[in-house]
Predict the structure of Cell division protein ZipA.
Amino acid sequence: MAEELRWALIVISVFVIGGLLIHGLWSVRKKDSPDTPSVERVEPNETTSEVQEPATAKSQERDEPEFGDLSFSAESHDEPAVSEEVVEEPEAETQQQDAEEEPAADAQVPTDFIIVHLQMPEGLTMDGSQLLPAVNMLGFKYSEEGFFNRHLDPAGTGPVLFRLVNMYNPGTFDIDNMEQFSTAGVSLFMTLPCDGDGLSAFNMLHSAAKKLADEFGATILDSNREEMTVESVREYVEKVRSFSA
């Protein structure tokens, strides 16, 4: 009996020790193995946005052109293209460049216009067949831009003193179809400052306006499209003098 109890205790001890060894080995392997957390793949939500383009408003044509719309090759200036790239310069070079640009800015001269309109009475027009010889008699010369220019020399040489344009769109004249052309008004204008004697050029412009007005029975209007008065002429003279000083 004692022998059987001893063997039973030995067997139980073996099982207990074996269980402890297995548990220890399992714990060590679990500690050494790195955790691999599960990563969930997140699918971005695809959203679409629609951009509604504003409707482009149609430009309305003016019956009477503005002088800012007319381009003249004799007065056009090509402006250099401006690059958007910014280049860092040393401070000394920047200060030198600014010093060189300041005199050029000071040399810029402001410009203005002297404008005289000739408006026909309602229902009447100037016929091109009559207008062409009239402007030729006043020393105007047709230009490639479609205007009549009055040069310093009546022969058509030298700087342009003033111009004659169509008061109504497109503002130009078709020299090849003057027989079929007619207009309800023309405009004479000069830029300030003027090449040469500004007062002399204005007197020539005003005289040409009066002769054309008498020829066609038109009314002379100032830049505000009001009937020209003695006071209007004086204001024009003072403006010309201010640019001649």
User: Anything to note?
Assistant: The longest strand covers residues 157-166.
